[in-house]
Structure formats: structure tokens, C-alpha cells
Amino acid sequence: MITDCYDVKTEPIISLEDFYGAPKHMADICLILFSIDIHNHLLDRYKCEKIGMLGSCNGNITIYKMNYKGKDIAFYLSGIGSAVASAFCYEAYWQTGAKKFIMFGSCGSLDREKTEGRLIVPTESYRGEGCSYYYAEPADYIAIRNSRKLAEIFGKLNIPYVSGRVWTTDSMIRETVGLVEKRKAEGCIAVEMELAGVQALCDFFGFELYDFLEAGDVLEAGGYEAEGLEAANHNLGKLYVALEVAQCL
Fold first, then answer.
1. Contact, 140 vs 158, CB < 8 A?
2. Between 218 and 67, the higher pLDDT residue
3. pTM (global) more than 0.70
4. Which domain covers residue 102, as residue numbers?
5. Segment 196-217, tens digit of pLDDT
6. CA–CA separation, 152 and 148 (whole Å)
7. What is the mean pLDDT of residues 40-63?
8. What pairing do the DSSP bridges indicate for beta strands 49-54 and 141-143?
9. Is residue 4 part of a domain?
10. What is the DSSP string of the chain?
11. Which of 13, 62, 88, 217 could disulfide-link 226, Cβ–Cβ 3.0 to 4.6 Å?
12. CA nearest neighbour of 195 among 177, 182, 213
């Protein structure tokens, strides 16, 4: 079973050194992006240097470095989903040396009243995916370790936000009425696809993860609303929130 996959008694057979050589140090902070529009905005507006490459047989992802208000910040366009996003995070660390990751993207709201007009700072994530079980002991939820620190930063920056549990799923078309109601009853206010796995990996390797979300679509028992998804996916405001958070780390 997937809950048997946490093995810290034996050593991994494969190392990233087999693919990338010795680890490098190019930046301390790295942005995990999910929007091609946000990614291209950075390339168009700032002087960006290629510092690494996430390689695979279906295409390579470039890691860039830019400078914002005097601070060097790496960034890359992540794949979507817990397993891919987690793997990219570790590979980005290996090639950049960054141990502080700021991850931000869109999500589905499970509580319109709480999330509307606010960014979401997750406090815990339901482990409805597979990757986290390789990096953390089995449990229903994983704590988002830096949620309180990020909430304090948002407060200083006067950014409207709400804190709460979220649900990480591996399948965006299997949020059934029953599962939505179950997660809501446990206090989840949103559903997304990366956080539990990336948090587990960061905990395992001693990285700092700062995650926030913007609700786009709404999942309710009475139906599904997708009107706000496009805007939430590509809202440049999230980027500049992330860049300001980087100044505070």
C-alpha cells in the first residue's frame, strides 16, 4: 500500500548527482511558478540569466535567475501535480542551491465566503496524493510549517488573506460531492494539486516552503463555477506578492 512507502532505513539507489553532477549554489530563494503568463512576464520585464535546466525526455525546463530590489531570485515554470512539482523542487535545489521556495498558484474554493477577495495561506493539507507518502510518515494531513510566518508577512504587507486547511488531490475531476463535503467538514477551504507533496519533500530535505493560493473556480454541492479560474491562474498580482515576500526572508 502507498502508506508503506516511507522508508528511511535503507538508502536511495538513484542520486541527482548521477544526472546533474555536484550540487551548485546560485541563489538562496526560488519561485515555483505555474503560470506561463507570469513566467513570460518575468522574462520580458527583468534581466534573466539561465542558471540550470530541469531535463526530461519530454522536454526541458529552464531555471532562471533575476534580481528584484537587490536580491537574486531563481525561478522556473513547474509541472502541475504533486509528484512532478516535488521532483522539480528538489532538482531546482540541486542546481541552484536555493533552500527557500515560494510557491503560489490557483486553487478551487470550497468556501466562497471565506476565500473571495483574499489570498489563501494554507495551514495544513490533506494528503490526497501519492508523493508525500515517500517523504513523511502516513497521516491524513501534513502541517504547512511556515504558514504562521507567511501570515505575519502578509499582515505587515497589508495583503488580505485567510488561513485554513486545504486539500491536495491527484485528480481534478474526482472531487465528488461526497469528498467535497467530507473535506469541508474537516475545515478545508480550498483544493489544489501540489502542496502536500512539495511540503513533505521540503520537510524531508530541510528546505523552507512558503505557499499561498488564489481561488479561481468554486466547487460546491450545487454545482461548479469556473468563471474566475483563468484570472486566478495568471494574475500578476500574485507574482509581486511573492517577490515582496522574498524580500522578507
1. no
2. 67
3. yes
4. 27-247
5. 999 999 999 999 999 999 998 8
6. 6
7. 95
8. unpaired
9. no
10. -GGG----SS--S--THHHH-S---S-SEEEEE--HHHHHHHHHHS--EEEEEE--TT--EEEEEEEETTEEEEEEEPPSSHHHHHHHHHHHHHHH---EEEEEEEEEES-HHHHTTSEEEEEEEEEESSGGGGTS-S-SEEE-TTHHHHHHHHHHTT--EEEEEEEEES-TT---HHHHHHHHHTTEEEEESSHHHHHHHHHHHT-EEEEEEEEEEEEETTEEE-TTHHHHHH-HHHHHHHHHHHHT-
11. 217
12. 213
2 falls within a domain: no
- Region of residue 72 (phi > 0: left; psi between -120 and 50: alpha; otherwise: beta): beta
| pLDDT number for residue 203 | 98
Model confidence at 174, pLDDT cuts 50, 70, 90, reads: very high
Provide the CATH number for the domain around residue 173.
Answer: 3.40.50.1580
Q: Is the confidence at residue 180, as pLDDT, over 90?
A: yes
Q: Does residue 238 sit within a domain?
A: yes
In the chain, the number of structural domains is 1
Q: Does residue 65 fall inside a structural domain?
A: yes
Q: What is the pLDDT of residues 142-171, one digit of tens each?
A: 999 999 999 999 999 999 999 999 999 999
What is the per-residue pLDDT for 185? 96
Cell numbers placing 212: 499561498
